């Protein structure tokens, strides 16, 4: 059976017989009107001519989606991973929509999919794996959002709306327990203070053991240890003015990302040294004074250990949930932010909105790159980030309400530092540097009703980005008597590495400690023509543009007078879509087909063992999404979604294909995180238990097609197609006070790679993988006051 058949047969069968779940009302299930703000105004999902998936908090709870990184299980053409390959943290998001995103987490590299909370752009991928704490809904916008959301939404946007306070006093407490000593505690309260001042507060604590064990010290990685809180206030001094203020904070203290080793290139330079310094490896011998006396006992270059016991080689793999690493690992993260939204309806044709945000983030993490006892490759990460943003929107109607218009101004500034000590068998260096970036934009969008059924939308945005980077790259020396870091020192050069250069003494800089500056600007447009054939049927055709800003490289291995930089990448997308509700609102069907021209791709390769970004070429991505909701009776709720991608390179620049690169990219390679098919299917049925309340069992199934996790298509980072099966059973009392759910995830105990990092073909010699959590269960009890 081919991939297409495996992806579609369960959908076709399930649409007839096996159902899924969403939101239940007191009288049973029904199709709800879903309000979205994909065009920065409140609209019905079914009359919004944009490819958008929207989920309410309750629907996400029913489907066991409790954090942003699980959205990919239910959203077509979305890949949302919680670990960036070299971060060492389980809170550094990799987000891809329709095959466009970013894998790197450094502050000199921007995401390709924007993440927003209450209108505030979350600039850095670190900290963007969010637990859903008292939210109202999540919207996933597919395709370039260059006019209304701006830069770095070239693939799309994930928009989280927190719950706003209201006049209804409510509170709830939830306790969850499960395997791996899981204990989650959550409390929420909505408290009106007066007739026009309302507040709410939510707090949570997550504690859980990890699912990957280090043989060296028994430490479990992939664990959870977090505290989070959120408080907000809504003030409505008049019918025309409202102020919404929100404060959030998160503290994470964990053992690091659940990375495991996937093999060592034993003929690589650092692996040879690492093996040679291990007492257990007798196949390789190295002079302990190699930095002074030269290499009389170095093994010949290119000679492996031939699988000798006690040594590490390409076949060294302890399993998906065991690591042999010995370097200390951790992931500490502190985040807080405040935002304010002021809305003033001046009159019938003019509304002014101000959105202000400030955020801070600090992270300390460390990882054992090779995941072996050998000292081959390890890193630490010290990350400090601050950002401030201000958006002003002026909106209204003209021409007897036939024209809706929006005019906006946007300013964003961020600064901080990212320092990365790198530990190698030939010495250590401090990588990273200081950054200071700002962005300014002007945008306009208008929708004109040509007739009662036909509407034309035009949008335009001009953006100017300024990036400043000060490299802070220092030699930390090595263990030899010469006290230098020099993967190209004379005793080493020409023997294991190709180039020779002057030694860099401890304390010496690998790059000039000067500020370097680049400015990028672009103008994006959007055109959309929508036709409302009937109240329940709308079609549209659109053209949209987006760009992702350029930046600098921050990882060097030899003296570099000036850091290399790269230019923006661009995407232009044509799309047609259909949205309809059928059979007296029993069926909801949304369909989108698209074609994207993707230019100046920012491709990460390794010239040596350090990752470098190049504008590597052009690609074409085409495909579509289908989302179906079926409510045959008020007891059944069935959902299905299918995403399809046909992606490939059209041309590649010699900078990424050159044979001199350690990891060249081939024109036939797959794009990163671009599965051909992504499908999901689910169902819920509610049983009436009389005085006992209701019982709702549900089943969720998702299919993820094969994909590569890096541009060079490393075999160890290839994930074959796999399926995930989840199930849950929820009991609710008739008065709505008590609610309890027994849930199971990954019932079939699938082993699947979500990300990884490869320097296998370089001197660094290693490959690491991160697997998803194996089968698990949890039991939750909630009381609503």
Task: Please summarize the sheet with the most strands.
Answer: 22 strands, antiparallel, barrel
Kindly estimate the percentage of residues that lie in beta strands according to DSSP. Answer: over 45%
> Which class do the helix and strand fractions yield?
mainly beta
The helix tally amounts to 5
CATH architecture verdict of the largest domain = Beta Barrel
Shape: globular
**At the fourth CATH level, what is the homologous superfamily of the largest domain?**
TonB-dependent receptor, beta-barrel domain
Structure notes:
Its main location: membrane. Pfam families: Plug, TonB_dep_Rec_b-barrel. Residues 314-746 form the TonB-dependent receptor-like beta-barrel domain. Residues 1-24 form the signal peptide. This protein has 785 residues and is mainly β. The chain folds into two domains: 3-265 and 314-473 and 509-784, TonB-dependent receptor, beta-barrel domain (Maltoporin, Chain A); 266-313 and 477-501, no CATH class. The protein has a 22-stranded antiparallel beta barrel. The protein starts with a helix and ends with a strand. Mean pLDDT is 89; it is low at 1-25, 288-297 and 479-501.
Please describe the structure with a list of short key phrases separated by commas or semicolons.
single chain, 2 domains, 22-stranded antiparallel barrel, five-stranded mixed sheet, disordered N terminus, mainly beta, Maltoporin, Chain A, 785 residues
């Amino acid at each position: 059976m081919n991939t297409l058949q495996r992806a579609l047969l369960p959908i076709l069968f399930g649409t007839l017989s096996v159902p899924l779940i969403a939101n239940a009302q007191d009288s049973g299930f029904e199709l709800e009107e879903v309000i979205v703000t994909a065009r920065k105004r409140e609209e019905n999902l079914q009359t919004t001519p944009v490819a958008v998936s929207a989920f309410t908090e309750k629907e996400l709870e029913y489907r066991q989606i409790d954090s942003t990184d699980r959205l990919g299980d239910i959203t077509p053409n979305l890949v949302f991973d919680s670990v960036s390959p070299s971060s060492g943290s389980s809170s550094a998001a990799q987000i891809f929509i329709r095959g466009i995103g970013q894998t790197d987490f450094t502050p000199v590299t921007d995401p390709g999919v924007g993440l927003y909370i209450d209108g505030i752009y979350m600039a850095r991928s670190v900290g963007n794996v969010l637990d859903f704490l008292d939210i109202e809904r999540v919207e996933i916008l597919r395709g370039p959002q260059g006019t209304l959301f701006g830069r770095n939404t070239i693939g799309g946007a994930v928009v989280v709306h927190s719950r706003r306070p209201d006049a209804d006093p409510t509170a709830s407490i939830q306790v969850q327990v499960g395997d791996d000593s899981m204990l989650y505690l959550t409390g929420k309260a909505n408290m009106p203070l007066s007739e026009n001042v309302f507040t709410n507060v939510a707090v949570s604590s997550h504690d859980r053991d990890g699912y990957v064990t280090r043989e060296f010290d028994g430490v479990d990685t992939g664990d959870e240890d977090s505290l989070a809180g959120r408080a907000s206030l809504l003030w409505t001094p008049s019918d025309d003015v409202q102020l919404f203020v929100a404060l959030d904070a998160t503290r994470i203290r964990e053992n690091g990302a659940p990375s495991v080793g996937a093999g060592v290139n034993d003929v690589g330079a650092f692996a040879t040294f690492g093996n040679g310094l291990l007492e257990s490896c007798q196949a390789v011998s190295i002079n302990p004074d190699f930095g002074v006396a030269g290499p009389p006992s170095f093994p010949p270059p290119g000679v492996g250990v031939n699988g000798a016991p006690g040594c590490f080689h390409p076949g060294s793999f302890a399993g998906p949930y065991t690591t042999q690493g010995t370097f200390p690992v951790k992931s500490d993260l502190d985040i807080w932010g405040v935002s304010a939204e002021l809305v003033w309806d001046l009159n019938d044709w003019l509304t002014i909105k101000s959105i202000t945000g400030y955020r801070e983030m600090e992270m300390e993490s460390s990882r054992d790159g090779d995941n072996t006892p050998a000292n081959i490759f390890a890193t630490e990460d010290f990350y400090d980030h601050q950002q401030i943003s201000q958006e002003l929107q002026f909106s209204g109607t003209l021409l007897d309400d036939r024209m809706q218009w929006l005019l906006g101004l946007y300013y964003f500034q961020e600064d901080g530092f990212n320092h990365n000590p790198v530990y190698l068998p030939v010495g250590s260096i401090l990588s990273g540097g200081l950054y200071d970036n700002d962005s300014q934009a002007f945008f306009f969008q208008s929708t004109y009703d040509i007739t009662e059924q036909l509407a034309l939308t035009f949008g335009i945005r001009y953006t100017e980005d300024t990036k400043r980077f000060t490299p802070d790259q220092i030699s930390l020396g090595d263990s030899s008597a010469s006290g230098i870091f020099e993967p190209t020192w004379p005793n080493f050069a020409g023997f294991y590495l190709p180039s020779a250069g002057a030694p860099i003494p401890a304390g010496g800089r690998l790059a000039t400690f000067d500020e370097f500056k680049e400015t990028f600007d672009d103008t994006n447009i959007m055109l959309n023509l929508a036709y409302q054939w009937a109240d329940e049927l709308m079609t549209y055709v659109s053209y949209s543009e987006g760009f992702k800003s350029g930046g600098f490289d921050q990882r060097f291995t030899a003296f570099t007078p000036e850091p290399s930089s790269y230019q923006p990448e661009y995407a232009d997308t044509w799309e047609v879509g259909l949205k309809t509700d059928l059979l007296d609102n029993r069926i909801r069907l949304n369909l989108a087909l698209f074609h994207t021209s993707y230019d100046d791709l920012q491709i990460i390769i390794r010239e040596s063992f350090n990752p470098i970004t190049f504008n590597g070429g052009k690609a074409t991505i085409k495909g579509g999404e289908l989302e179906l909701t079926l409510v045959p009776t008020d007891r059944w709720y069935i959902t299905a979604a299918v995403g399809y991608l046909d992606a490939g390179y059209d041309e590649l620049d010699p900078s990424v294909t050159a044979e001199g690169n350690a990891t060249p990219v081939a024109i036939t390679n797959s794009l990163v995180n671009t599965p051909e098919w992504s499908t999901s299917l689910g169902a819920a049925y509610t049983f009436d238990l009389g005085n006992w309340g209701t019982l709702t069992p549900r089943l969720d199934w998702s299919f993820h097609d094969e994909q590569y996790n890096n541009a060079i298509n490393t075999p160890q980072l290839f994930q074959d197609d796999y399926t995930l099966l989840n199930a849950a059973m929820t009991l609710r009392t008739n008065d709505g006070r008590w609610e309890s759910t027994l849930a199971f995830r990954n019932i079939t105990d699938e082993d699947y790679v979500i990300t990884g990092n490869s320097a296998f073909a370089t001197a660094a010699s290693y490959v690491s993988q991160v697997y998803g959590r194996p089968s698990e269960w949890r039991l939750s009890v909630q009381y609503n006051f």
